[in-house]
Amino acid sequence: MQRFQCPFCGLRDETEFHFATEAGKSRPEPAEEVTDAEWAAYLHLNDALKGQAREVWVHLTCGEYFLMTRDTLTREVSGSEALPGRAS
């Protein structure tokens, strides 16, 4: 089992975490003008690049979202940090 570092709670089992989205992915706006196809693409289509990736994850136990940097090929995590504006 892999272990991830929550910036708020420390090292925990991977089962306590859930992938949210790629970091830097912009939500389509204005909401009232977004088509169903645009919304579906935002929710379900990811670049899924091979190698280093910055992603937003949520620690289900504490409910905090944070940034994780990991290698998508080796699954090695090289860092995690609170989202901007959130103190860890």
TrEMBL record:
InterPro entries noted in UniProt: SoxD, SoxD_sf
Pfam families named among the record's database cross-references: SoxD (PF04267)
Q: Give the protein name, as stated in the record.
A: Sarcosine oxidase subunit delta
Where does this protein come from, organism-wise? Thermohalobaculum xanthum
Please name the GO terms that the record assigns under molecular function: sarcosine oxidase activity
Report any one BP term from Gene Ontology: tetrahydrofolate metabolic process
Q: Which domain of life is it from?
A: Bacteria
Gene3D superfamilies noted in UniProt: Folate-binding superfamily
